[in-house]
Write a structure and sequence with these properties.
The protein is α/β, with parallel strands linked by helices. The chain is built from 12 helices and 20 strands. It has a 10-stranded mixed beta sheet, sandwiched between helices. Strands 14, 16, 17 and 18 form a 4-stranded mixed beta sheet that branches. The protein is globular and about 65 Å long.
C-alpha cells in the first residue's frame, strides 16, 4: 500500500497532529519527515491533551511504529523530556524509532538562533528560537553532527572537538558571546545517547521494508507549505521543506510510493511571526477569531495573526504539492458569524494578482478581493456526519473546493478525535 502525506497548507498550525492521530489507528507506521522542536502538534485524546514538538503524532497508538526520519532536526533534551512526560502519563514509547541519519540541534545552534534574530532588530523573521535554522545550515554546509555520531564515543569526540572550536570562535568574534566547555558538553551528549540508543535505526531501510509488505504508512509534516524555503514567503520561512517533495526526502520514501497528499487548512487563515498575510484582519473580527480559535503558538505562546481564508495562497500550495484531499479544520470557530469571507485575489490599482510572488515587495499595497458567504450562525461542535452540517457550511466548503480544485474529505469541528468528520 502506498504512503499518505499529511501536510499543512499555509503557514502552519493547521491541525496536522489531530488528523495524524486520528488516521494512525489504521496505520502501521507514522513517519515525521521534517522540522524539529519548533513544531507544536496538539492532540486531544481520551488519555488527555498532548502537545508534541518532536514526537510523531501517532505515538498514542501502541500498535503504530512512530519514526523520526532523517529530515528531522532533533534537540535531544526536548525529545527526552517528551518521552519522560509520556511515560509519566502511562504512555508506552517503545514504539518510537529514530533515524541514525537525523541531525542534532546542539546548544550552540539555539544560542546562534537567538543572537541572530536579535541582530536583525526590526527585520526579525519571527523564528521560534529553537535552533533549527543554524542546524539546517550546518547540515547543508556539512558541519552537522548526526544521531549516528553520538552513538560512537570516539567519533563524537573527534567531531565535537572540531565543531565546538569553530562555533566558540564564531560566538566570541561575531556576537561577543560566551562559548561552551568541551568535556561538559561531551558528557551531556553521551548521556543523551544512552537514553535513545535502543530507539535508533536505519529508518529508510525499515520504512522501505514496511512499504514492500504493503503497510499503511502516514508521513507527518511539520510547519506549512507556505513556509517552504523554496516556494514559501522567503525569507519569512522555515529552514526545511514542509512540502510533499520534502516529506518524501525526509521520510525516505520515493515520490512513486505516495498515494494521497492530504492538505490540512483551517477554515480561516493564521500566521505567526513576520511576513505577508494579505487576508489578515486587525479589527474586532480578527480578535474574535483569535479568541474562539485559541490562536496562540503551541511552542512560543505568541498570539497568531488571523484573517479570512486566503484561497490564493491555499490554491498555490495545493497545486505545488499535488494535494488530493482537503482537511478543513476549525470550522466551529466561524460558528458565530453572520457572513464569512474568502480572499480570492490580490487587488492592485492596475492589476489583479492570483499568486504569491517571489518578491514580497510586490505584495505591498495589495488589497484582498473578498467573496462573501452566508454564515451558519449555529453550533457545529456536536455534529458527527457530513450530511448534518448546515447548508451554509456545505456552500462555504464547496467554494473552497472550487478555488483549490480539490475535494474536501475531512472537516474539523473541535479539537477532539471524535470531532473530525470524514466524508464518505
Amino acid at each position: 500500500m502506498p504512503a499518505t502525506i499529511i501536510l499543512g497548507g499555509l503557514w502552519g498550525d493547521e491541525g496536522k497532529g489531530k488528523l495524524t492521530d486520528a488516521l494512525s489507528s489504521s496505520a502501521t507506521m507514522v513517519v515525521r519527515a521534517n522540522g524539529g522542536s519548533n513544531a507544536g502538534h496538539t492532540v486531544v485524546a481520551p488519555q488527555g491533551k498532548f502537545k508534541f514538538r518532536l514526537m510523531p503524532s501517532g505515538i498514542l497508538n501502541p500498535n503504530c511504529i512512530c519514526v523520526l526520519g532523517a529530515g528531522v532536526a532533533i534537540e535531544l533534551p526536548t525529545l527526552i523530556a517528551e518521552m519522560d512526560d509520556l511515560l509519566s502519563r502511562g504512555i508506552d514509547v517503545s514504539n518510537l524509532r529514530i533515524s541514525d541519519r537525523a541531525h542534532l540541534v546542539l546548544p550552540w545552534h539555539r544560542a546562534l538562533d537567538q543572537l541572530e534574530e536579535t541582530r536583525r532588530e526590526q527585520d526579525e523573521i519571527g523564528t521560534t528560537l529553537n535552533g533549527n535554522g543554524p542546524t539546517y545550515a550546518d547540515k547543508a554546509s556539512r558541519h552537522g553532527i548526526r544521531v549516528a555520531d553520538i552513538l560512537r564515543p570516539e567519533i563524537l569526540r573527534r567531531k565535537l572537538a572540531i565543531e565546538l572550536d569553530s562555533k566558540n570562535q564564531l560566538l566570541a568574534s561575531v556576537y561577543g558571546a560566551e562559548g561552551y566547555e568541551f568535556e561538559s558538553l561531551y558528557r551531556d551528549l553521551t548521556g543523551w545517547a544512552d537514553r535513545i540508543r535502543s530507539h535508533v535505526i536505519a529508518s529508510e531501510v525499515v520504512v522501505q521494508d514496511e512499504l514492500a509488505k504493503g503497510a499503511n504508512i502516514l508521513i507527518e509534516c511539520a510547519q506549512g507549505a507556505m513556509l517552504d524555503i523554496d516556494y514559501g514567503t522567503y525569507p519569512y520561512v522555515t529552514s526545511s521543506s514542509p512540502t510533499a517533495a520534502g516529506a518524501c526526502q525526509g521520510a525516505g520514501v520515493a515520490p512513486t510510493q505516495i498515494d494521497r497528499v492530504i492538505g490540512v487548512y483551517k477554515a480561516y487563515t493564521t500566521r505567526v511571526g513576520g511576513g505577508p498575510m494579505p487576508s489578515e484582519l486587525t479589527d474586532d473580527v480578527g480578535e474574535l477569531i483569535r479568541a474562539r480559535g485559541n490562536e496562540y503558538g503551541t511552542v512560543t505562546g505568541r498570539p497568531r495573526r488571523t484573517g479570512w481564508f486566503d484561497a490564493v495562497a491555499a490554491r498555490q500550495s495545493a497545486r505545488l504539492n499535488g494535494v488530493t484531499d482537503l482537511n478543513i479544520a476549525l470550522v466551529d470557530v466561524l460558528d458565530v458569524f453572520e457572513t464569512v469571507s474568502m480572499c480570492t485575489g490580490y487587488q492592485f490599482p492596475d492589476r489583479v494578482m492570483n499568486h504569491v510572488p517571489a518578491l514580497l515587495d510586490d505584495l505591498e499595497g495589495a488589497a484582498p478581493i473578498w467573496e462573501e458567504y452566508a454564515g451558519w450562525n449555529s453550533d457545529t461542535t456536536n455534529i458527527e456526519s457530513w450530511e448534518d452540517l448546515p447548508a451554509e457550511v456545505h456552500s462555504y466548503l464547496a467554494g473552497i473546493e472550487q478555488k483549490l480544485d480539490t475535494r474536501v474529505t475531512y472537516v474539523g469541528v473541535g479539537p477532539a478525535r471524535e470531532q473530525l468528520i470524514q466524508r464518505s
